[in-house]
């Protein structure tokens, strides 16, 4: 029966096929077509995002997509790929379509990449393809901060305002890696899609004096830092000087080795959305975390 379906890949720039994916996104993930259209029209969905899709006539019925996601691990750049948008129309489930798509994807990525990564709430679906769950850790320090400025000198970026998006897009290509131990390097696609996440999109702040963007929140005296986007990452003291809220603790949701901090507590990050990796990470069980801004 599957031989009645048509397989297509690498069609991001073909509107006739790309737009056929939108209803599948809406049916499976509840992502509205208007949001996907906006994402593409703003140049945030580009040809680095490669769909592998089965079509039944004009209808997209199963899909998995890949995009480059290079990592820095122990100071060495590693060529990696992310897999996302894994979805099958319920009517077409049980026919092995996703198994077929993954076989096609793995043939391609094994020729080009050292590692493949994905996030999932259902790890058992991916272990047959050589993926394994890896534990992630966030990092905590005690840091007593009393605001220096009664009025905030930070600009809260509105990621639906193109001028604010341009600030980020002008800095990102030249950003310093968050960590030498473990950090994503080419995560523009995931970052831009997270613009639409209610958990993140109000947390981007631009500090003009430092030419830096910090993604953070302060809740109940705890400053949670999710990302820092800057050509040169400022010292933690410089960043905190601009934060207009008091706090006594900082939690870093990435490996904070760039700050050379003493007495850092490592805490296992418990989440239903598990990070899975295919390939052998050269980390020797050292704690690390994929920044939430790079999660996909």
Structure description:
Residues 5-156 form the N-acetyltransferase domain. Its EC number is 2.3.1.-. InterPro entries: Acyl_CoA_acyltransferase, GNAT_dom. The chain is globular, with a radius of gyration of 20 Å. It is 21% helix and 32% strand. It is an alpha+beta fold and 296 residues long. It folds into two domains: 2-133, 3-Layer(aba) Sandwich (Aminopeptidase); 137-268 and 284-294, Aminopeptidase. The protein has helices at residues 15-29, 33-41, 97-112, 162-171, 188-193, 236-240; strands at 6-9, 50-56, 59-68, 71-73, 76-78, 80-88, 115-120, 132-133, 137-145, 155-156, 182-184, 204-207, 212-219, 222-230, 247-252, 265-268, 274-278. The protein has a seven-stranded mixed beta sheet with strand order 1-2-3-6-7-17-8. A seven-stranded mixed beta sheet has the order 10-12-13-14-15-9-16. The protein has a three-stranded antiparallel beta sheet with strand order 5-4-11, with no helix packed on it.
In short:
By secondary structure, the protein is of the alpha+beta class. The protein is built from 6 helices and 17 strands. The protein has 2 domains: 2-133, 3-Layer(aba) Sandwich (Aminopeptidase); 137-268 and 284-294, Aminopeptidase.
Task: Trace the largest sheet across and list its strands.
Answer: 1-2-3-6-7-17-8
Strand content: 25-35%
Which term fits the overall shape? Answer: globular
| Number of DSSP-assigned strands | 17
Spatial separation of the terminal alpha carbons: 32 Å
Task: Let me know the average pLDDT.
Answer: 93
Low-confidence stretches: none
How many separate helices?
6
Return the CATH class of the largest domain: Alpha Beta
